[in-house]
Amino acid sequence: MYIFLTILIVIAAILLTLLVLVQNSKGGGLAAGFASGNQVMGAPKTADFLEKATWTIIALIALFSIVAVGFSKGQSETADDQPAVHVEQTAPAAELPTESAE
Fold first, then answer.
1. 36 lies in which domain range?
2. How many structural domains compose the chain?
3. What is the reported pTM?
4. Which of 20, 91, 94, 99 has its CA 20 to 30 A from that of 5?
């Protein structure tokens, strides 16, 4: 589940990057193409949609991050129950003959 949430966070971050690049800080961007005054989807409405989509994706990234931390804590607790390194006991090596003083 942690990996799935991480993938969702990456996808949301890419979408957020694209949304921010589409917007123009001076009110242009994608909204500038719909400058006609009598269209239903005019410039203010497009800008509002892009801004709401941006804030929604930011909230989703924050939520997914918090949930992912919860799942990573659960995984680390189960890993703590098991030994990290398994050490095998081996029989002692045969003793080397000692030199006798003659």
1. 2-76
2. 1
3. 0.56
4. 20
The CA-atom distances, in angstroms, between 27 and each of 18, 45, 73 are: 16, 12, 43
Token pair 């719909």 is at which residue?
34
What is the model's pLDDT at position 47? 78
The length of the chain in residues reads 102
- Contacts of 72 by beta carbon, 8 Å cutoff, 6+ apart: 2
Structure confidence by residue, pLDDT tens digits, 32-72: 555 554 445 555 677 788 889 999 999 999 999 999 999 88
- Alpha-carbon span 94 to 86, nearest angstrom: 24
Check: CB of residue 71 under 8 Å from CB of residue 2.
yes
Taking alpha carbons only, the member of 74, 76, 77, 56 closest to residue 12 is 56
Any domain includes 28: yes
pLDDT at 98 over 50: yes
